[in-house]
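Components:
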Amino acid sequence: MSRGRTVLMTEDSAGAPHRPPDSQWYDNEAGPLVRPYAMTGGRTRPGPSGVRFDLIALVSLDTGAPDVLDDTSLGPEHRTLIELCRAETQSVAELAADADLPVGVVRVLLGDLLELGCVTVSRPVPPGQLPDERILREVIEGLRAL
Amino acid sequence: MASEQADATDGDTGALALKILVAGGFGVGKTTLVGAVSEIRPLRTEELLSEVGESVDDTDGVDQKVTTTVAMDFGRITIRSGLSLYLFGTPGQDRFWFLWDELAQGALGAVVLADTRRLQDCFPAVDYFEHRHIPFVVAVNCFAGARSYGAHDVSRALDLDDGTPVVLCDARDRDSGKEVLIRLVEYAGRMHTARLLDSVG
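Structure:
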């Protein structure tokens, strides 16, 4: 795996869950030590064509998912995402924040997991189409009750 | 959790997520507002950029730098199991407009936060949402020490379309933030109904 000081900036890189153990020579200012393209195998788009993960697309672990934890094609970042989804259904944006990975990287990795049948992804509301009035009323009442 | 999707109402997996944007100038209180109403600590997510910024970023002397990141704040409010509201604080810098396009896709609406001491800072956001017909409310964050203006004055100063709500708020206050969101969802519903009527009549 290609490694080196990257120019990526992180606002808060403390507590990164998968920081390699040999990175302790650097302080947090150095940023992540694995370049994003290394985590995605050089890919910038998810594998299956036409898949586009919206930031609020909800990702759940597929209950009937094959056990892929022994799959050697999966990297540590894939496993991190699986563990996060196992804890709770989460949006793509939350996964990116919790895994401390750029959204673009998370999209590619989720594409792999989708192909393997590990996760299911909800479709976002189509652009220009609002949910029906009943849902909006529910949202308003829910906000009032907070 | 799979059990949470038993009460499916919509979509493929049953869970429905709605998106609200929080826009406005730098330092106007976007992160504060998101944090005040969110049930999770404000999370920051980073979008990786490459090349896109090249034409506008002054990269002289930093020719090694081909990627940069931009941070977006976001928060979540769970209405019920399977129905959540996500709030996204939009990046303040103008050169990240293309990110707004992604954020705005499928958004229920937007809150434009304004500070009356520098109202011009929210002009770009107002223009953006007006041009794209995305329902928005203007929330005036009432900073201590700033001269107070009425909602009507702000509406006129921003040359808002009739009906666009202007709400005075305190971005630090949870109830105040909730009220802003309620006004937005009500307004988005009205706009949507009006458009449906237009399209059939």
